[in-house]
Protein: non-specific serine/threonine protein kinase
Amino acid sequence: MNGNGRGLAPGEVLDDRYRVVRRLGSGGMSSVLLAEDLKLKGKYWAIKESWTGRAEEAGEASEEERARRRAVMAEAETMSRLSHPNLPDIVDVKGPDRQGYLYLVMDYIEGETLQQRFERQGRRAGEEEVADWALQLCTLLDYLHSLQPAPLIHRDLKPANLMLDGSGRLRLIDFGTARSFKPEQPADTVCLGTVGFAAPEQLEGRQSDARTDLYGLGALMYYLLCGGRYYRPGAGAEAALPAGLAPLVLRLLRARPAEPVRAALRRAMAPWLRSWLPEGFDSPAARDARQAQARFGGGWLQRLFF
Structure:
C-alpha cells in the first residue's frame, strides 16, 4: 500500500479484539480488511485501514502527509456521526498508530460493489434496477443534505463506492471526498472527485453544493444505463439513454442548474423514478417508499433533496 511500513496482516489482532482474516480490497492509501471479533463469537467486521502519513511529532511529516492525515481524520469523524440505512455503521475508531495507520471498524456487508455487479452482468443494468438504486440514493442524499449545522456533500458517487448486499440495499462506503457546505466560501479547498462522475464545478475548482451530488447521481445513472459510457454533452448523449429515463437523467446532468430548474427537478424526480418501479416490485427502496407513503402521504418523495 505504501513504502512506509505495512499495515495489519492476516492473523494479527487490532486492539486485542479484532483478528484480521483477510484483505478484502485496497486502493490508494487505504485497504479494507475482514476481521473476526474475539469478544463476540461469530461476529465479523470490515476494517478500513488508512495510512495517514508519518507522525508530526517525529518532525519528518511533509505538507502532503499532514494534509493526508487531516483528510483521513476528517473522514473518520464524518462517518462516525452518520446514521442511515444506506450507510455502514461505524462501531470503533483506532489510531493513528506509530506507523501512521488509522482504523475504522464498521459493519461487514456481505455482497459486492455496484461496479462488480455491473461488470458481472456484462456491463448491463436494467432500467427498473437503476431506478431502484437511484431512489435509494435519493433518500440518502436527502439525509446528507439536511444535516445541521451544515449539509454534507459527498462529491464522489461512483459504482466502486457503493456496496450492494444480498437484499438489494445499497451502502455508500467511502467519504474520503465529502465536505460540509460553506455558503460563504467561493471555492473548495481541495478539488476532489472521479473524472467521469465529478461535476463541472469540481473539475474547475469552484464551490460544490447539493447540486454537485445531483450531477453525480445523474452521471452514475448515465454510466449504468449506457453500458459503462461516461456522459459527454452533445446530441448523442440523449440517444444512448432509455427514452423513459432520459429526461430525468439529462436534467440531473445540467451543469449548475438555476433555482427554477432545480425546483422543477425536485418536482419531477419522484414521479419519474416511481414510474420505473411497478406495483409489486420488491426492494429495500420500494419497501421504504411504501412505508413513507403510508406515514407521510403521497407527496413525500417530492420533498427530497432540498
Observations:
- Confidence is low (pLDDT under 50) at residues 180-191, 292-306.
- Residues 128 and 276 are 5 Å apart (CA to CA).
- The longest strand covers residues 18-27.
- The domain at 13-107 is CATH 3.30.200.20 (Phosphorylase Kinase; domain 1).
